Every structure is written in structure tokens, then in C-alpha cells.
Amino acid sequence: MIQPPDSASQAVRPSAQDTTGLVMEARSLKKIYGSGEKSLAVLSDANLSLRQGEMVAIVAPSGAGKSTLLHLLAALDTPTSGTVYFANKAIETNDDDAALAEFRNRAVGFLWQRHQLLPDFTAAENVAMPLLLRGEDFTRALGMARKWLAEVGLENRADHRAGELSGGEQQRVAIARALVTGPSVLLADEPTGDLDEQNAWAVFELLERLHRTHGLTSLIATHNLALAARCDRILGLEHGVLKTRGALASASEAPGGEAS
Description:
about 260 residues; alpha/beta
């Protein structure tokens, strides 16, 4: 049975002096859309510390701000206030475009709920795209893409157009694309949200394996309690504030329970 969240959950506060193994950190992130009476505070004081090798889940219902938080961590959006740090260095979204592109392309891999593949390009071409964008040779980029497609079990589908693949296959292509650049951090935004139960488990188990074998630090936003229970830590996002939460589900349960 899925258990309710720990009623004694506590807000995550900014880390103190110890930065040992700290890969990514968010301090006092605030994100407000609009202004005046029509303003909407999605994040009000979000603090987060990710250490090397951790797989951390953020559990919250749809619309709670999970995607907004991940976009801020990946420098895809700008916080109203607060700072994101990577390797103890502040990531300023007003930095020059080249520096931000370098961060997005090399430091962080981003996995969307909807795969965002280009349907008329092959699986290999889709995976190679981030490498081509940073100036890699086409032949080398395609070779690395094929290697990663083999990692996710799709070596025989490399030359099929993305639009010809099943939903589960498309998400595995998206995983390969997120990791082909060799990032140290994987940010996954509801990676199983559009999949049926069988494919959801398969994709999550693939993420677990890749996390271990490639020494990743992973942050997975989800509303699925059973999948979150497989992670090292679980955080809740409540009223724009991240809070630690206890065990939410048995790892053997079907991934059908949802946060509320």
C-alpha cells in the first residue's frame, strides 16, 4: 500500500560549510510569473543540494513547479531571485550565450516528459544533434550516437525515423540524446509520465542502470510515488518550497500511485 507522506517533513535549507562531493546547489530560488495582482509565485524559497552519485526524486502533483525548478537548474529559465551553483560556481543566466550553451551542452543532460525528438530525422541523427551543435564532426557524432543507442537497447533502430518508433523507444532515444554529451548531472522531468505501466518501469530501470554505470548525479521530478521510492532521497515540493519526505512507497509496488 502506498503510504502518505511523512507529516514531519521539513523544508530544505541552504547547505552550510560542507561542500564535499557537492555537484549542484540551489539557494533560495524564487520564480514569480507576472506582476502586481496577477503575479503567480511558483517557487518561493527552493533550496537543493545534489552530491556526487545521488539519485534524488522530487515528488509533487502536476502544476506544483517541478518543471520550473528543473528549467532553472538547467539554465533554461531565469530565477526571479536566488542562485544555482554547479561545481561551486554560480551559474548566471545573464552570462554570455556561449558560456550558457557550454553549460547546457556539457554539464547537464535534460530529459523531457515528451521526448521532443525530430520526427523526420533518424534515431541516430536525433541523438547526434547535441554533438553537432557544439561543432563535432558529423561522422564522429553519428558514431557516438550509435554507441549510445546500443546502450539503451536500440542499436537495431538507429536508422529508423523517430516518428516510426513506439513511445517507449522514443523515450529511450531521448535518454541517449540527454547523455551523449557526457554530462555529470541528469535532470529528468516526468520521464515516465507519458508511458504505460510496463514501459514506465522499463524506462526507469534503464535510468537506474545508466545512473550507476556512468556515475551520474540524477534529479528526477515525478508524481509517481513507487518510482520515487527507488531513489536515494525524496523531496516534496509544497507551496514553492522543497521539503524532505519519508519513504512513500515500497519499491516492489506498481508505479501507479501518484502524489497529491
